[in-house]
Amino acid sequence: MNMNTGVLPEREMLLTILCELKRTSREYTTAVMESNCSAIRQTLTSLLSSTLESQAKVYGYMKQHNMYKASSPVLRQEIDKKIREHQQSQQEQSQFVQSRLQGRQPYGAPFPNYGNTPSQHQSFMM
Description:
The structure is a single chain. The chain folds into two domains: 1-70; 72-105. It is flat and about 65 Å long. The termini are far apart. The protein has three helices and no strands. The chain is mainly α and 126 residues long.
């Protein structure tokens, strides 16, 4: 902190703003996911989009002025692998939800294992 003016240096202010934008985007995302009113959901989605745009502008400014170190580059293979893993997980979740909605499995039926070994998913029975 600059003792003469009581003002944070520009980098520190921008890092604080970046953190607040990150927090705000998490809050808006949660609110969108939990909203059951389409008008409110649309408003929150618009606010989330605006927040993400602001974050991109602040980050871009900081990166351009060497105030923020970007993460190291990732191999395209790693990105593709993570995308495939996410798509597979998303497909499995969608199948699970559809099976529950169509009544193929009664409520309370055990979750499918999807090839995971028992050591990966521990039982939470008391």
